[in-house]
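step=predict obj=NADH-ubiquinone oxidoreductase chain 1 n=313
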Amino acid sequence: MYISIISTVFAYICILLAVAFFTLLERKGLSYIQIRKGPNKVGFMGLPQPLADAAKLLTKEIAKPTMANYSPYFLAPIFSFILALLLWQLYPSLYSCSYFKWGILFFLCVSGMNVYGTLLAGWASNSKYALLGSLRAIAQTISYEVSMALILLFPLFLVGSFSFIEIKESQEYIWLSFLMIPVSLMWFVTCIAETNRAPFDFAEGESELVSGFNIEYGAAGFALIFLAEYANILVMSLFSALLFFGGSSMILFESDVAFMLKVLFFAFAFIWVRGSYPRFRYDLLMGLTWKGFLPAALSFLLLVAMLSSYIFY
């Protein structure tokens, strides 16, 4: 029991460090995409910049808006942060202390709860900008969860298991992305929309909503929302690599180094997309999932179900 607790705490510390330095990677990546330098004043090449940002946020005075509903207002960032960390329990490693046989169901349950953190943050702030941002984020997240759940059925049908570890091991000889390239592309776009990232960042549309659902947050509250967002980006990159670009976990190199390089590639793809595309129109965003991804996923799913039943028969 003590080993499990120590392992979990150590894993969470590593996740927080990864999130901190991923923000540095994003700022450096966007700066070079835009032909500038990025953070380079704090320490050597700006490497301690995430630590300086964390120290600044955690030492600032906590804002207490006069009209806010205090209990849900302070609870919302903590709730979002806990949900983001819970998803990391599904990390498929030989050194994990927990094994989720029904990992995909756990993932769907926890990711579905993310909506409530955004809802609480927007509503409890008692600000029109925050409420509008949270409503847009909720509509976007719920819409894309439908197509995400359908896309998740493809690996389930092909592998016949709800376990992420078994899905990863089943791709020892061929990646699932080679069997269904359009589905893997739809999954990645859905991941970008689910994490409210550019070009789908309507929850934080600065031109209309100042800063969206988190406008009334500062100091530690903003830091927790920020950490939750970037932890979700990294965990969705992890699941993208695992579901469509997995491999055998019996080989140490493949299990640790190569798999992490795949995750890093997908995480950088989030930055690359942000630096390459302007923000979508909201009606086009919703039409993309309801008129594009949903019919396409249902059609592909019907085809895969027919083929799998024919093969097994």
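step=describe
The longest helix spans residues 2-33.
step=end
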